[in-house]
Amino acid sequence: MNTIKCFCLEWSFTGNMTYGRAAHTASILSNGKILVIGGEGIDNIALNSAELYDLSTSTWIATSKMNNARYLHTASVLSNGKILVIGGQGINNIILNIAELYDPSTGTWTTTGNMNNARYAHTASVLSNGKVLVTGGHGNGYLSSAELYDPSTGTWTTTSNMNNVRSVHTASVLSNGKILVTGGNNGNGSLNSAELYDLSTSTWTTTGNMSNARRWHTASVLSNGKVLVTGGMGSRNIILNSAELYDPPTSTWTTTSNMNNVRRWHAASVLSNGKVLVTGGSRSGDALNSAELYDPSTSTWTTTGNMNSIRYGHTASVLSNGKILVTGGYDYNNIALNSAELYELFGTN
């Protein structure tokens, strides 16, 4: 007898956030709650507010505000459970070098050491030794600089510069502990270059170039160790549907099948079944509510149910129960949303 396996995609609204926000961050705390921080608000003003999503009640509660409003910042979960928020653009679009720490046990913020360079649209990666590597972004021009935060001392130290200036790029922690940085904008357009940071030597080395230059793309580390890069804005500002895979042992890129939709500033989430869910994003003169799944075992994309809201510049967090929480983002009028929704993949035989 033939067995038919059906996966049904379901999107459902959950409680609204107190504030509409886009270009914000969402961090999964050790207690399972989701901390949403900052972003650009409905009036295009940087926010210092933060709120917590409780999975057990599907509700949002306010927590204490950051000391500095910011968007296009980063937020990293440290090994001690605290959240390190770094840089971004603040009130009146001032570029920040300020960092601060959120303590989930007290619900309070404290300032910590300032970065050596103010920056936004950068990346932040938690390394195997517990330090945080910050790369590139935009500050005093486009940056190649990188620096390390030491949670044990609350201080920053510079490390060697990347080979290329870049912002709105990606940084992925590989299984060998190295950091893969891909693409971005150098001020003249999108980049196809990629480079690796080696923690043991504090040095950068170039690795194979991507097939397509891209910025505002995503990069996801798959269960097989490869890195899936999707979409973004390419050369001549063309928005892409292409995807490619980086293989760390060979340092090479191979193209894989294209997404069904071109998209940039979307979100990508690795699901518990190993598939990658891509949601939303924008394209020329439009924004998307579409979602699609990449299956690494077949290297194919399948469309799935649409989100309830069009959004880009949003977040997508994999919850402890396997659901995906999508929050905020801009709508097609570039207005920040306060809505949130949940995705769940049901499997039946």
From TrEMBL:
Keywords from the named record: Kelch repeat, Repeat
Protein's name according to its UniProt entry: Uncharacterized protein
Organism of this sequence: Adineta steineri
Domain of life the protein comes from: Eukaryota
